[in-house]
Amino acid sequence: MSFTPIELGASAIFAIAVLHTFCTGYFEALAKKSPRHAGLWHLLGEVEIVFGFWAAILVIFISLYVDLNTAKDFLNKRNFTEPLFVFAIMIVAGTKPILYISTQILHLLAHALQSALRIRSAPVLYFLTLGATPLLGSFITEPAAMTLAAFLLRDLVYRHKCSKALLFGTLGVLFVNISIGGTLTNFAAPPVLMVASTWEWGSAFMFTNFGLKSCIAIFINALAATLLFHRQLIEPNTDKKEARVPLTVILMHLLFLAGVVVFAHDPIIFMWILLFFIGYTTAYPKHQTPLVLKEALLVGFFLGGLVVLGALQGWWLKPILEMMSPTAVFYGSLALTALTDNAALTYLGSLVTGTSPEFKLALVGGAVAGGGLTVIANAPNPAGIAILRQHFPNGAVSALYLLLAALPPTFVAILAYGLL
Length: 420
Description:
By secondary structure, the protein is an all-alpha fold. The protein is built from 22 helices and no strands.
C-alpha cells in the first residue's frame, strides 16, 4: 500500500473531519456557554460546514507543502456536478407548489387507506411519507425525494413537540429508506450511477437485483416506525385551509423540476434552468414561499468539501476492496460507507479490475444499505439535515444518536438483500 505525503495528510484531515461530525452538538453547547465567541462555535457546530471547512484546510496544506498552482490544479480536476445538482434540486423541489401537490397526493392516498382501515390520518400520512416518498427517488432522484420527504415530515412531525426517540427514529428510517429507495432504476441513486455505465447495468437489471428487495425493506421500515410512534403523532390541522395553488403554477414548477432531473449530468444546463426558475419565482411571487437558498448552499458546500477530501482516499480504500471476498465486500462497504460517501466508495470499487458479478452486487448492496448510518454516508442526507436540524436539541443532530437510530432499518435492508 503506497502513498504520498499529500495523500497521508489528506487522510489525516479527512479523519479529523469525520470526528468533527460527531462533535457538532458539543460546539453548539459551547456557543451557549461562551457568548463572546458564540458565532465561531455556531459555525463549527453546523454539520454542513464541516467538510467544506476541512477541505479548505487541505487546500492550504497542499499550497504550503507544494505550491499554490498545484492546489489550484487539484481543485480544477475535481468533478463538482453532484454538489451543484443537489443544490439546484433542493431549491426547485422545496418550493410551495411542489410541496402543495405532493401533500395533496399523499392526503388522497391517506384518505383512501384511512377509510379502508378505519384508523387516524396522522399514522397513515407518516407511513406514506416514509414508505412511498423514498421510492420517488428512483425517478426524480434521491436528493429531490429527500427534500420532499423532509419538508413533509417537518410539517407532520418535527414542528410539534417530539420525543428524542421520535426525532431520531424518524430520521434514521428516512435516511435508510431514501438510500435504498433509489435502486429501482440505474440513474437516480449516486452510488448506482457511478458504476451503471462501467458495468453496463440497466434499469431492468437494477429492479431485478435490488428494486423488489428495496421495496420490501422500505415497507417494513416504514410500517415498524409507524407502529412504534403512532401514539405520538398529532393529527394535521384540517380546519386551517391552505391557499390553493393554480394548476398552471404547479405545472410550471413540475416542468422546471423535470428539466433539472433530465439534465442532472450537465451542470451548465441545469444551473441555467435553476437561474431561469429563480427568475420565474421572482416574477410571480404570489404563490411562492422564500426559496431554501441558505439550506441548499450549505448542503452544496458540504458535498463540495466531501468531493475534495474524498478524492485522495483511494490509496487505502481501493486496496481494502481488492482483498475482500463478495461477502466481506458487502459488510466492508456497508461499514466504510459510514466513513465516506457511498458514491465515492462504489466509484473506487468500479476501478478494481477482474471482479466477479457477485463482487459488484455486494459492493453496491452494502453501499446503499449503509447509506443512512451517518450524515456523510449518502449525498442526500445533508439535505434532510439542513431542513430538519432546527427542530433538534440545540439545533444540532447528534451523529451518535443518528447512528443508533439508523441501525435497525439498516439491519432490515441487510436481511432483505441477503435473504431475498
